[in-house]
Amino acid sequence: MGKADPLLAEVAVPLPIRGTFHYQLPKGMAPAPGCRVRVPFHRRQLVGMVVGLTRDPQPFKTKPIDGVLDSEPVLTPDLLEAARGLARRTQAAWGEVLFSALPGYLRRGKPADTAPRSRIPESEEQPDRTTPLTLTAAQQRAFETIREAIRAERHQVFLLHGVTGSGKTEVYLQAIQEVFAAGKDSILLVPEISLTPQTIERFRGRFGHEAVAVLHSRMLESHRLMHWQRIRSGQARVVIGARSAVFAPVRRLGLIVVDEEHEPSYKQADAPRYHARQAAILRAGQAGAPVLLGSATPALESYNDALRGRATLLELPERIDRIPMPEVTIVDMRRQTGRRRLFSERLTEAIKQTLKKGEQGILFLNRRGFATVIQCGRCGQTAVCPACDHALTYHSGRQKLVCHPCHRLEPVPTLCPKCRGDYVRFRGMGTERVESELIRLFPGARISRMDTDATQARASHDRILKAFGRHEIDLLVGTQMIAKGLDFPRVTLVGVINADTALNLPDFRSAERTFQLLTQVGGRAGRAQLPGQVVIQTHTPHHPAILAAQAHDFKTFYLKEIVVRKEVGLPPFTALVHWTVKSLSATKAEAQAQTLAEQLRETMPETVRLLGPAPAPIPRLRRQSLWQIALTAPKPEILEAFLSGFLEKHRPTKGVRWIVDVDPL
Ligand code: ADP
Ligand code: ZN
């Protein structure tokens, strides 16, 4: 290597292709890592990102770069490194992770200082500034432990396990205050649907309107860009956002908080299939900052990490002001008949009392639509999606049958498509049915529904919650959308219409999910002075997950469940990868799955186990046939090394796609 060798830019591109590519730079030009460039790529032009500079000669002929887009990096060195680690761990391309960290405008190559076309609407209610609350003894202990790591600028993972209403948010606020006072930046991740005006205003009230930036997927792209710019310029030093806010371009990261860290929505469904908790830990590790994970129902993995010393456990075992946990009643629905199959006598009575006292109730059912089974009363044929192997749900609002996995709409049949019989029955219940039945049973009550159907319009989600907060709604029906974060003092009743919806899923986490959902939704009741009650309707009243939720006993649930996971060899004791083979041709999908399994078996290390291939849980989706292979190993590193080697050498055959999901949920 001599002085004469030209300077090359090492560039990552936003494609699912492993490795980076080298391009020649014009004399005197040396864009810093983190700057975007335009590069020629297989007769196309792409926006790529510089990840390094080198004069090392390359084995292949290099092309000159088309242009440099940034004079200043759009991603910081800690982010470049964290993205690389995340790509390795999730078997995604580095470029895929890097570009998912950027707002859409920048992904498309627009200048980073583009003035967004619209301005952020001034919040109608400028929140009143609030002062920190005097912490309870338990909050104080937790806070001081975190503060020590913040002051020492030390990377350390904390798990704050606090029951619902124990004041976790105040601990977050004061920890962030500590970072803020030191002139550094904080990121608070929340699940998408708990990113309500209530949450945002709480933070704006403490740090000022200007200091807080918000990033989530429901906002206009131009607003996203503006918030991104405010963060990058240092104007906003507290970032609140959903999953992808973990990549916010803060300059001096002092803390990442992951609220409701057990939430499945932290895992991204498309490539790069990362988990925001994992991304937070990687990034904070690069920046030398602590991570604070918080939950009333920690993920088994996180709690296990805490017990094994990989995270520091902090506990808030009581509600603020010693407010009691709500009383939980379990109703055995196997004994209910007729109309009582929707609302038991016990729940009907509880709703009646709640309304009479002028209090509010939340009714939870994790299923959308009106009827979930459409079946011919004569031949037994059920309505399924023409593009998927999946039953259709009847939505009364839209007057259509809907396929939930693919969103396809079908007309409502009056005749059975198979036997032409005219006795089509609608069975099974969703939130629309619960709502209409409530209206029938309680004619005077003000009833609203909140699920993805009811909140199609922008901001309708916030509008319903505001109305509920002002007590313009007595009973709120909804899916898991209403299970989290809501803090309304007049809610004294939570009714779970059917606790078994999640238990019946073919997923080893179904018990854990059920426990989490019941605890979270139940935790909305009786958060202030008025005592709360929870009524859980179920066909499996003795299930450990339901009993543990009744007793508000995370620890017992954890200890039982972790034994099962260990015996069966499931996470957190084994690393898991789901490999899906997808094709429009059913024969191709199956043949490829078989070949792939053979190739994997031939080359995999001894400690790796392979299950399958088998048809995926939904075997046909959007006309594609899906087959699945599961791989397990005692340690994630084993799978990581094996898979990256394998994927470098193997490609799917034509007409087939592979989806490799590491640590699937
Ligand atoms: P969690 O997030 O743990 O469910 P929140 O943070 O929503 O609980 O707190 C529950 C309620 O208690 C909120 O209304 C909050 O304002 C209040 N609160 C929290 N900490 C304190 C405190 N130290 N003193 C008085 N009230 C508090
Ligand atoms: Zn479908």
Mass-distribution shape: globular
Structure annotation, total helices: 17
Strand content: 15-25%
Major β-sheet, in short?
Answer: 7 strands, parallel
How many strand units?
Answer: 28
Description of the molecule:
With 665 residues, this protein is of the alpha/beta class. The chain folds into four domains: 100 residues, GIY-YIG endonuclease; 200 residues, Rossmann fold; 183 residues, P-loop containing nucleotide triphosphate hydrolases (Rossmann fold, 3-Layer(aba) Sandwich); 88 residues, 2-Layer Sandwich (Alpha-Beta Plaits), CATH 3.30.70.600. Helices cover 30% and strands 23% of the residues. The chain contains 17 helices and 28 strands. The strands form six sheets. Strands 9-10-8-11-12-7-13 form a seven-stranded parallel sheet, with helices on both faces. Strands 5-2-1-4-3-6 form a six-stranded mixed sheet. It is globular. Bound molecules: adenosine-5'-diphosphate and zinc ion (ZN).
